[in-house]
Design goal:
By secondary structure, the protein is α+β, with helices and mostly antiparallel strands. Helices cover 18% and strands 27% of the residues. It has nine helices and 32 strands. The protein has an eight-stranded parallel beta barrel, surrounded by five helices. The protein has a six-stranded antiparallel beta sheet with strand order 3-2-4-10-7-8, with no helix packed on it. The protein has a four-stranded antiparallel beta sheet with strand order 1-14-5-9, with no helix packed on it. Helix 5 links the parallel strand 27 (438-442) and strand 28 (476-483). The longest helix is centred in the last third of the chain and has 19 residues, at 592-610. The radius of gyration is 26 Å and the shape is globular. Bound molecules: (2S,3S,4S,5R)-3,4,5-trihydroxy-6-oxo-oxane-2-carboxylic acid. Residues 228, 421, 483-484, 517, 535, 573, 621, 638, 640 line the site of (2S,3S,4S,5R)-3,4,5-trihydroxy-6-oxo-oxane-2-carboxylic acid (GCB).
Length: 688
């Protein structure tokens, strides 16, 4: 028997359920699916375009708003893998989970739940239930609205507050929120209950399939998936309560430009929410102030139009990537103050209705058939594919890890990374803005295979939510619509044409790319992109052990992508698994020496390609070792990291550091770090 499943959110709220057909097309994705199987083309006229997301501004304190974290220890209870929806039937959310009589364990939030305990929770398939209590101050009752915001729950979540449904969401790695003012108890304790479901099917992003394994103890459901990272689950990022005034700024969209004369321009769109019943408040005007790093006003205006406007910034300090400028990542604070006043110029505290401050970098981003440019200067991206992954906390947000990773990125001289294979935390996007690290922002569509309308709807929705979340970040230089989809399949053509057309319509000034592993002659996706990205493991999965074949194979392949599509080309993945501490001279695969040799031959190929002008970047796979599903090709996980899972360098890290700084010096005349070379002897100057 196969474990057919339907998203829980559909069962609960009467959303039309996808038809689960018994035909080949309707079955869950099977990891062992014959790659050559073709699926009928679908007509996409019926596909529902996702409605624009609104709201979800990152929670920030201000004189009109209060933010509270609900991070900390929550309680967690597993439901039976054979009956994941029993808690819905039995209405567990109506009471404390303790009433079920089952075991409740302490579970930190944020964290993946998988690696916290010593039992079978790691491989649990189905639903788990989280719970915690909290209080809110009585002052929040008067002229305030209270919002509950989850930065990410993987994969889907249903949320209750005091036993009443508050919201639900599916697709991991993306935020969701709901106003909960009416559900709150202002005179005592409140309770949040979350049901989290980790199951992936053929209509989830990413896809997977739940199948039945026959064990010595009887049949058990097992989650299958083809992507190469562990399917960690749980409340992965922070949970916040925040307040807003009754009428408030609910959404902001900005676009920036920089002229060659140094004039900055910020165009903004604002959304206001005053949707509460009986609310009759009308804003009179908006005071917009742009403050520089020292808090000085760099530009300002009073705007009676409220919903849109433009600020001109003379002598703007541009946002530059790391190592392209002595002061990279320059951010202003764009302060919006909404007034309800008798006089349209009045800006005193009593008339202030709402205030929100958005960090803003002023820069222009453009692209052509040969290059990607920031502030008119062509970019050469040098960086990594990464993962949000670490020991014990899995994919849970960890600020210490985040700070360490950015120290390492800067130490090694990288200027970019791809958020392979899903959106990363909002905190990491803010870090990237501040440090000038450019982001190729990828949606969670990794290894998708069965191309059908329901999947397309989810896929479009994941991109829509991602773009909505990240469109205001200066660090985002491209959207990646997929990683290694089975893009040679017949159904891929129509699917990706529809997907890319939709994404282009909401791309907010960024080019579209993807990480492709098909070949230029068979791929149906590349023709729709602005930048062609490919993944290729020369001398690893192909020609293992033969580093002497890399330069020709790689330069020829990149040239073929260019010849076929005439677009800028980038390599998004190359590398080889390397066991830290394993040495071999001459080099042998899995040794540190082999990784060094493999990288060095790639550098040679990249330098030849750079001369052809349309080759715009090199990304190593991977920044650090990471956990995968259990397979005989992975020793404790994927070991292609330049850093260990513990964030310590392998030998290749020092070589890569030389390379990235050498490029920064050649291309942007950066100053080299003092400790790039070590003293050897007075006759050897180991300098670039
Ligand atoms: C790839 C995938 C990545 C894998 C990597 C590998 O092409 O995009 O998710 O981890 O190869 O190491 O096999």
């Amino acid at each position: 028997m196969r474990w057919l499943w339907i998203p829980v959110t559909c069962l609960l709220f009467g959303i039309p359920q996808p038809k689960v057909s018994a035909t080949k097309d309707g079955l869950p994705l099977n990891p062992n699916l014959d790659e050559s199987t073709e699926y009928p083309l679908f007509e996409y006229e019926d596909v529902k375009i996702p409605a624009p997301t609104r709201g979800l501004l990152y929670p920030r304190d201000s004189e009109t708003r209060e933010v509270r974290s609900l991070d900390g220890m929550w309680g967690l209870m597993k439901s039976s893998p054979e009956d994941p929806l029993e808690g819905i039937r039995e209405k567990w959310f109506l009471n404390t989970l303790r009433q079920t009589g089952r075991e409740i364990i302490a579970m930190p939030v944020p964290a993946s739940y998988n690696d916290i305990t010593t039992d079978d929770l790691r491989d649990h398939v189905g639903t788990v239930w989280y719970e915690r209590t909290f209080f809110v101050p009585r002052s929040w009752r008067v002229n305030q609205r209270t919002w509950l915001r989850f930065s990410s729950v993987h994969y889907s979540a249903v949320v209750w507050v005091n036993g009443q449904n508050a919201t639900s969401h599916s697709i991991g790695h993306l935020p969701f929120e709901a106003e909960i003012s009416r559900l709150l108890n202002f005179n005592g304790e409140n309770r949040i209950t979350v049901m989290c479901d980790n199951r992936l099917g053929n209509r989830t992003i990413p896809q997977g399939s739940v199948y039945e394994a026959t064990t010595d103890y009887g049949p058990v459901p097992v989650q299958g998936y083809t992507f190469d990272f562990f399917n960690y689950a749980g409340i992965h990022r922070s949970v916040h309560l925040y307040t807003t005034p009754l009428l408030h700024i609910s959404d902001i969209e900005i676009t920036t430009k920089l002229t060659t004369e140094g004039l900055g321009r910020i165009d903004y769109l604002l959304w206001l929410d005053g949707s509460q019943e009986g609310l009759r408040i009308q804003p009179t005007h908006l005071l917009v102030q742009l403050r520089d790093r020292d808090g000085e006003v760099a530009a300002q205006q009073i705007n009676k139009a409220v919903y849109h406007g433009s600020l001109l910034v003379p002598n703007a300090k541009p946002w530059w990537p790391y190592l392209m400028h002595p002061d990279p990542g320059y951010l202003y604070a764009l302060q919006f103050e909404l007034f309800v006043a008798s006089n349209e110029e009045e800006t005193d505290a009593d008339a202030l209705q709402d205030a929100y401050r958005l960090p803003v970098g002023i820069r222009s981003l453009s692209w052509s058939n040969d290059s990607l440019l920031i502030n008119g200067k062509p970019l050469y991206l040098r960086g990594f594919g990464r993962h949000e992954d670490s020991d014990i906390r899995g994919k849970g947000l960890d600020n210490a890890l985040l700070a360490r990773d950015f120290s390492l990125l800067k130490w090694i001289g990288a200027n970019a990374y791809r958020t392979s294979h899903y959106p990363y935390s909002e905190e990491s996007m803010q870090f990237a803005d501040q440090h000038g690290i450019m982001i190729v922002d990828e949606c969670p569509a990794v290894n998708i295979d069965i191309f059908e309308p329901q999947l397309l709807e989810q896929h479009m929705s994941s991109l829509e939510q991602l773009i909505h979340r990240d469109r205001n970040h200066p660090s985002v230089v491209a959207w990646s619509v997929a990683n290694e989809p089975r893009s040679t399949k017949q159904g891929a053509l129509k699917y990706f044409e529809s997907l890319v057309n939709f994404t282009r319509s909401i791309a907010h000034g960024r080019p579209l790319t993807a990480a492709i592993n098909a070949s230029p002659t068979t791929c149906h996706l590349a023709q729709f992109l602005d930048i062609v990205g490919f993944n290729r493991y020369n001398s690893w999965y192909q020609n293992s052990g033969r580093t002497d074949m890399i330069v020709n194979l790689l330069t020829n392949e990149a040239q073929s992508w260019r010849d076929k599509f005439g677009k800028p080309v980038i390599q998004f993945e190359y590398g080889g698994d390397t066991m830290e501490g394993m040495h071999s001279l001459p080099a042998f695969i899995w040794s540190e020496e082999y990784q060094v040799e493999l990288f060095s031959r790639h550098f040679k190929a990249f330098d030849e390609l750079r001369e052809r002008k349309w080759f715009i970047g090199e990304f190593v796979w991977n920044f650090a070792d990471f956990r995968t599903a259990q397979t005989i090709t992975r020793v404790g996980g994927n070991k292609k990291g330049v850093f260990t899972r513990n964030r310590q360098p392998k030998e290749v890290a020092f070589l890569l550091r030389w390379r990235y700084f050498a490029l920064a010096k050649e291309l942007d005349q950066c100053t080299l770090p003092q400790d790039l070379t070590v003293y050897i002897s007075k006759h050897v100057h180991n300098e670039l």
